[in-house]
Amino acid sequence: MRMEFSRKLPDPTETKDMLPLSEELTAAVKKQTAELKAILSGQSDRIVLIIGPCSADSEDSVLDYVSRLVPVQEKVKDRILIVPRIYTNKPRTTGEGYKGLVHQPDPNARPNLLRGIITTRELHMRVVKETGFAGADEMLYPENYPYLDDLLGYVAVGARSVEDQQHRLTASAVDCPVGMKNPTSGDLTVMMNGILAAQHQHDFIYRSWEGHSLGNPYAHAILRGYVNQQGVSYPNYHYETLRHLEELYARWELRNPAAVIDCNHANSGKNPFEQPRILKEVLLSGRSNPGIRKLVKGFMIESYLEDGNQPVGGGVYGKSITDACLGWDKSERLIYDAAEML
């Protein structure tokens, strides 16, 4: 291989031995996971709001942000379950740019994956301990999932990963709910194939073991928009697409039909200030069609302390160094507005 190996990294068991989870934290994660499953299965009529920074680039500002969600959650708990986005892996279309906390625990320094693995686990542990929330993270690298499997309340498989066999099979072994995004092409059948695969049992090679997965009945759709052949963004959160997805679910006979609407990315044309409007439009679609209200179980919002984004090293506390985000004041208002519409 044309690769230099600099050091062997600790495996997930070793990392968990270094940073073990207490019974109290384990119970908190299980509680939120159970609440999520109740929403996705239709046992609860609340919606889930997966909200937070595009990428978790700073432990201090991420914890500051998530701490602000705690009193908000208390006020809307009868209608909304908040799950903080703590995305420690960042997909890069060209491979260039900041790849997330697991690669660079200090965005201004060179990559350090040993430190990144430890920092990532420490951050998720601090979130559970200090706020009671179990976070959401993207499963960008399936083999990395066991470093965090006892901490996560929600896992997302991205638009560029949803067609990958290893992502689909690993999702079938994940205990918490897994959202499968539509691919960048917008073909919903690709996403449905991913959900189907994730809901079934499989035998496959995983981290040098022959494993057997039990299937994940809470694998579900995430609609994030798409791009055409010219690279122009198009949304897929409108009434007609939601009706079509409802029909696809009925045709495919999948368990726990559910959709989460990603209000940023191609749905907003990466304009984070469109996110409140998109959320409200989808809620209005649900008001006019009970099938859509039953199908749409939640939303994803990219939100941070400050509006917009900045380059790496920009120096503004709580401002994204990847995709532009909705600032805190607007995000808090969005949550309350959503609760009033439900």
Can you describe this structure?
This protein is of the alpha/beta class and 342 residues long. The protein has one domain: Aldolase class I (TIM Barrel). The chain has helices at 12-18, 23-40, 59-76, 113-131, 165-171, 188-199, 239-252, 275-288, 290-295, 328-341; strands at residues 47-52, 80-84, 136-138, 154-157, 178-181, 202-206, 209-213, 220-223, 226-227, 233-234, 259-262, 296-302. Helix 5 (165-171) links the parallel strand 4 (154-157) and strand 5 (178-181). Helix 3 packs parallel to helix 4, helix 3 runs parallel beside helix 10 and helix 8 runs parallel beside helix 10. The longest helix has 19 residues, at 113-131. The model has no long low-confidence stretch (mean pLDDT 96).
